Amino acid sequence: MISIKSEREIELLAEAGKVVYQTHCYLKPFVKAGITTKQLDKLAEDFIRSKGCLPSFKGYEGFPSTLCTSINSEVVHGIPGNRKLKNGDIISIDIGACFKGYHGDSAWTYAVGEVSSDAKYIMEHTEKSLFVGLNEIKPGARIGDIGAAIEEYAKKHHLGVVKELVGHGVGTTVHEEPDVPNYGSRGTGPILKEGMVIAVEPMLTLGSPEIVILDNDWTIETEDYSLSAHYEHTVAVTKDGYRILTFDKGGQNG
Fold it and tell me: Which of 38, 167, 171, 204 lies 20 to 30 Å from 1 when distance is taken between CA atoms?
């Protein structure tokens, strides 16, 4: 069942989302060659807890860490460890924080030092596809409108859309109904209503959209080892559009 959040619940979700955003801002200067993903994870956990929140992902269905850190051809769910970032890498960092039982969830892809033109291309257009999808959100629109807009943008820029991975509702659990695919047909899927809270998260690839799961049973990588990028915001449907909750001032309409 898709839940409609009260004003109070949305403010709690916004507080969680603000901490997620602040954590991204805090980590960004540390995303440099030589740091390990495990070090980034420790920095993030300490920061989230210092803000009176809990890491949403740690322990979720057995996931061992605060962050998902996915490098280059890794799409999502990279587990932090002793791998050091190197110049030219791109890294997608997915962060969740829980405030008084309510969650925020946002991912962003970062360049490590100087990156290739291909890396810049997929980062630029995956980020733009997120906002193309968000711009479809208003009461009376449908979930399929979001996915169709993202898919159209991705195809126009010759990027692959990973279809096995989708966005989702957010509330008192990290993942709630409905699923929010990054593909689809306009006029299909659940109708958006004021008070719904969803995470929109395009995961695009520079090559084939086919994926494989690594031996750790978590990390998902592109089958052809092409680069992948991931951008995500949690948003609330408002009476005339949407409000980004994973932002420091609860930005309206982007």
Answer: 204
